[in-house]
Amino acid sequence: MPSVHLHTFGCKANQYDTERMRQELEARGAEVAEGREGATWVVVNTCTVTNQADAEARRYIRRVRRENPEARIVVAGCSAALRASEYREMEGVVGVVKGHDPVEVALAAGVAAPVSPPGADGPVLVQIGDRRPLDRIDTEPVGGELLRSREAGTRGWLKVQDGCDRKCAFCATRLARGESRSRPVGEVVEEAKILASSHPELVITGVHIGHYGIDLEPRWSLGRLVAMLLEEVPDVRLRLGSVEATEIDDLLFDLLSSSGGRLVPHLHMPLQSGADPVLRRMRRWHTREQYRRRALEIAERLPVLGLGADVITGFPGETEEDHASTRALIEELPFTYLHVFPFSPRDGTVAAELQREIPVPERVAGERSRDLRELVQRKGEAYRRGRDGEGATVVLEGRGLALTEDYLRVRVAGGVGAGPGTPGRSALRPGTLRAARDDLYIDLAPLPGRAGPALAVPTDARAEHPTVTAP
After folding, report:
1. Is the torsion defined by CA of 298, 300, 301, 306 positive or negative?
2. Phi and psi, residue 324, nearest 5°
């Protein structure tokens, strides 16, 4: 029986794809190994959002080669789609899959056995009727199964679309993933029901989820899909993945404020820059003011709100004035965390040409990144302190950690916590947030039928645990 270890770089969409690879491998008789050391095969699902992401994948492959020289390595994912020849030349790499197709990965890993038929012993896949592809390739012979669980965590990923029709000047992911393709509504609902049996929270993910449904017939929208999921899958709470500020329509807005927390008050809205000249060169479709206005409207309706964004510093032509404009916007808006990246030119993108014409020095881009990270760290810490004494409902993640509805990773008082993949709603618990030195804890309410007070925050919390920062 082949032993396969899977390693993932990048976003939740990539993590979802890895889970489909795992499920396909297991259905074909492979044993999935937790560690890479003793595995006969190692599958690396790559990301290409930055040069650093490509470099990390190459370093990991070399590390596998050093630690387990006998392992045969298969490289898949976004970076593999764009840089296949580079990976093929690396020692130990025996297969490259240009994208995320789980069947191609299984075959590249030497697992050619057919999937288990219904009624047979072992894993049985729920096949999709029309097998619409979510991956970059045009056909998907077997791998269009419904995902049954996310093995690596309490929360489940629900991928509703892939690809992107936007043409942001800096983005290579759209080159790797292709055009936007939405999964049929019924298929998404059916998968959500399956995942809800073992995950108390589902994260709606994809590459550009705000475009969900525009390619379906009849046409749908993300808001309508979320409304249907709330109705059809009642025993789970939902969280939106990354979604553009201008694509949060009135229906989504209403669901965020009126669903009683079932659609959690957390939004990750890519910003990229707070300066209109830079946004135009980036080929973004929103202005600084459009973003600002929508963010403030949302914050006004949601008194508890986890708000995050992606920001690129040092984009070609960015001036000190542009950076100051971005900084002022971040200072004004109620961000609780940011993902800040110095600009990284990607081959085949418009921004790579701009970098040759109007470059910003790497040193300057790095300094601006540090400036914004320090700013948002202070804002995030202030937000965490402001939640002291307030109620929250958390997903227990194991190892004494939990995640609040507004995307704060907190410690569980007393270290109580469900393990990854804990089934049922017992892993979704209400409680009261308590600040202890620089940390934030959740004091859980007792489970129904259990006597006794909620757990107290340890007085030596700071000594026992390192500071937990916003994710």
Report:
1. positive
2. -65, -35
**pLDDT classification of 428: cutoffs 50, 70, 90:** confident
CA distance 27 to 282: 43
What region, left, alpha or beta, does residue 401 occupy, with left being phi > 0 and alpha being psi -120 to 50 degrees?
A: beta
Amino acid at 32: V
Tokens of 253: 């807005």
Token pair listed for 93: 């790499």
At 311, is the secondary structure helix, strand, or coil? Answer: strand
Closest to 134 (Cα-Cα) out of 144, 123, 125? 144
Higher pLDDT pick, 28 / 379 = 379
Closest listed residue to residue 124, CA positions, set 195, 27, 25:
27
Query: Is the CB of residue 256 less than 8 Å from the CB of residue 295?
Result: no
**Does the pTM exceed 0.85?**
yes
Tell me which residue of 267, 268, 269, 265 sits closest to 286, measured CA to CA: 269
Q: Coil, strand or helix: which one is 347?
A: coil
What local confidence, expressed as pLDDT, does residue 426 receive? 53
| pLDDT at position 461 over 60 | no
Tell me, letter by letter, the H, E, C secondary structure of 421-471.
Answer: CCCCHHHEEEEEEEEECCEEEEEECCCCCCCCCCCCCCCCHHHHCCCCCCC
SS3 342: strand
| Burial tier of 147 (Cβ tally within 10 Å: 0-12, 13-18, 19+) | buried
Are 213 and 237 in contact, with CB atoms under 8 Å apart? no
Helix (H) / strand (E) containing 276: helix 276-282
Secondary structure (3-state) at 42 = strand
CA separation for the pair 145, 139 (Å, rounded): 14
Burial (Cβ within 10 Å: 0-12, 13-18, ≥19) of residue 224: middle
Classified as helix, coil or strand, 306 is strand
**CB 24, CB 105: distance < 8 Å:** yes
Q: Residue 4 pairs with which residues in a beta bridge?
A: 32, 41
Tally of residues, the chain: 471
Topology classification of domain 1-131: Rossmann fold (3.40.50)
Q: How far apart are the first and last CA of the chain?
A: 38
Mean pLDDT of the chain: 87
The lowest-confidence range among 89-103, 169-183, 456-470 is: 456-470
Compute the CA torsion angle 288, 279, 166, 17 (nearest 10 deg): -90
CA distance 257 to 261: 8
- Nearest alpha carbon to residue 313 among 394, 367, 252: 367
